[in-house]
Amino acid sequence: MGSITAATLKDYIAQGYKRNERVGQFGVELSMEKELHGRWGKRVYEVDASGLIVRELLGERIEPVAGATQTPAQASILVDLVAGYEGVLVIDGLELETVDLNALRDPTRPGQQITLPPTTVYESGNATLTFDPSPESSISSFSQGKHIVQVIYWETVEGRGSARSYSWTFEVF
Fold first, then answer.
1. Distances in whole angstroms, Cα of residue 38 to Cα of each of 11, 70, 94, 137, 153
2. β-pairing, 120-123 with 98-100?
3. 70-86 pLDDT per residue, tens
4. Coil, helix or strand for 38?
5. CA separation for the pair 116, 132 (Å, rounded)
6. What is the pTM of this model?
7. Please, what are the domains in the chain?
């Protein structure tokens, strides 16, 4: 899995992908990209002047796939935040360490290959949190059954003390 490259961006956009999505790069993920990709959902909320959610506008809700809550075991967790926000992931009650991708880069070596740590990676440029289970991480894989994901997020300038959260569940088949 990886970011859409400049060379393939136009093709993916034409297929309905978003610019900052992660896609299969090699092997099974690449050959099965269309089947594994899924569909974006949407929820619209009414918020008050301070940004707190007043209510969900149910008529504006789009489920990714109506009634679908199952996913293959190798699934990643990807959260799109609003620019200017950061956060952490809590999966099945375990808060995962989060590493800022910028902290891993050597500014004197542009274009360098980076080995991502087995934790949640925050990409401030895309405002995303991504976690890929691996044998080296605190969650090696998502076992069969139901899992609960919570994203705790906050405006960067305000800090974690002003955090809010959102939770969802998925089931591995």
1. 17, 11, 26, 25, 24
2. parallel
3. 566 657 888 888 888 99
4. coil
5. 10
6. 0.60
7. 69-173 (2.60.40)
